[in-house]
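User: Just a sanity check before I run the rest of the batch. Below are the structure tokens for the first item. I only need the designed sequence back.
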């Protein structure tokens, strides 16, 4: 009897959550799902036709009227609307003139109109002028790479974006020279690298190779208009012994969709030489984060679909067709390497697992409620998994059956 009463309470809660989305915090998702326009991408290009930034509009986060301000280098743009499944057609104009998707035109206001049945939705993006180049003097990034006697790169590189006025790093003991690349926030800023009475000066980006026994480098930046300046100091030392630790301490692989929404994450603290990672069928990208046991000296590469990627900590990959193999190679300071294999395969879905997370629970029942209330109709494979009694309908009978399973009556 207690379980029956619990079932009644679960049903009542779920129907309320379905009819009043605010109760379950899903109003934004519902609004996005009802939008005829799933998103808008605007890419910017400089005078030479090179890509120099973008603007992305998401109906779940932004209103249907917004503004964009590209960087100072942008002179042209292309617009790519993405229609939702419930949209029938769309039209677009830029600067008041008809626009053909993905062609390159001058910077101007964008208007997109989408229709779906008797519903019409418009999206407006106002060109709000170009952003001026920053006159401030600041260091945007710093790369420090140890080199051997032949000038080949060694493990133990340092890449910094969260920069302090004083920085330090430890280089492998077999490093003979050090390559330094400093990039300013502004392309017009002047960078000076100085050490041991010698210096070089460049605009925007400065590169310098120094002997490894040089221990301190001063980085000075002056803004393009000469009104601001900043100084940084880098100190580095050579390590004692060569490390042979090529083990992985942690790996996490996150499956994401086209909108960078996280669908599922597989985390490994005890990483084996061969591992299996099931992912949802609608995943299109993988975020791979690896932490080696030797944080100071180990480096790693990722091999996927014939391509090799060198990374510091994480990498975002576009997925090939499932299944596929991902290989992570960890190389210690002394050259010892260990290869870890990750077999990425489609997760097997089953009846009742509406959201495809591998479990049957309250979120799945909520999806069925929202379908019944016509708030967010299910489609394709999600509909099939929600049709628990296999009668080609998703209705209260399926809701009762999944609730009985949740409270342990089945």
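Assistant: Here's the designed sequence for the first item:
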């Amino acid at each position: 009897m207690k379980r029956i009463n619990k079932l009644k309470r679960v049903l009542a809660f779920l129907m309320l959550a379905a009819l009043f989305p605010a109760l379950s915090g899903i109003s934004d998702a519902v609004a996005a799902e009802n939008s005829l326009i799933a998103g808008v991408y605007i890419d910017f290009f400089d005078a030479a036709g090179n890509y120099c930034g973008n603007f992305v509009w998401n109906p779940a986060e932004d209103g249907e009227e917004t503004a964009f301000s590209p960087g100072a280098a942008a002179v042209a743009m292309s617009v790519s609307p993405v229609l939702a499944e419930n949209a029938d057609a769309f039209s677009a104009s830029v600067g008041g003139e008809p626009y053909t998707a993905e062609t390159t035109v001058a910077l101007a206001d964008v208007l997109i109109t989408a229709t779906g049945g008797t519903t019409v939705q418009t999206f407006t993006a106002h060109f709000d002028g170009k952003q001026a180049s920053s006159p401030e003097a600041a260091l945007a990034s710093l790369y420090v790479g140890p080199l051997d006697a032949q000038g080949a790169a060694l493990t133990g590189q340092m890449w910094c974006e969260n920069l302090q006025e004083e920085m330090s790093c430890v280089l492998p003991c077999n490093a003979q020279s050090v390559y330094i690349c400093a990039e300013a926030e502004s392309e017009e800023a002047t960078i000076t690298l100085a050490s041991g009475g010698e210096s070089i000066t460049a605009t925007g980006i400065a590169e310098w190779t120094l002997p490894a026994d040089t221990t301190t480098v001063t980085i000075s930046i002056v803004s393009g208009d000469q009104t601001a300046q900043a100084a940084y100091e880098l100190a580095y030392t050579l390590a004692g012994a060569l490390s042979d630790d090529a083990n992985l301490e942690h790996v996490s692989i996150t499956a994401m969709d086209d909108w960078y929404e996280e669908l599922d994450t597989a985390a490994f603290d005890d990483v084996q030489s061969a591992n299996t990672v099931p992912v949802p069928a609608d995943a299109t990208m993988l975020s791979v984060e690896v932490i080696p046991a030797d944080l100071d000296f180990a480096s790693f590469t990722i091999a996927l679909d014939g391509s090799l990627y060198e990374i510091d900590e994480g990498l975002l990959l576009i997925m090939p067709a499932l299944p596929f193999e991902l290989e992570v190679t960890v190389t210690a300071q002394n050259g010892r390497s260990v290869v870890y294999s990750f077999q990425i395969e489609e997760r097997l879905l089953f009846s009742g697992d509406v959201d495809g997370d591998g479990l049957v629970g309250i979120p799945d029942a909520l999806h069925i409620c929202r379908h019944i209330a016509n708030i967010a109709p299910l489609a394709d494979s999600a509909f099939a998994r929600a049709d628990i009694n296999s009668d080609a309908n998703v209705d209260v009978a399926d809701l009762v059956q999944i609730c009985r399973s949740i409270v342990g009556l089945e």
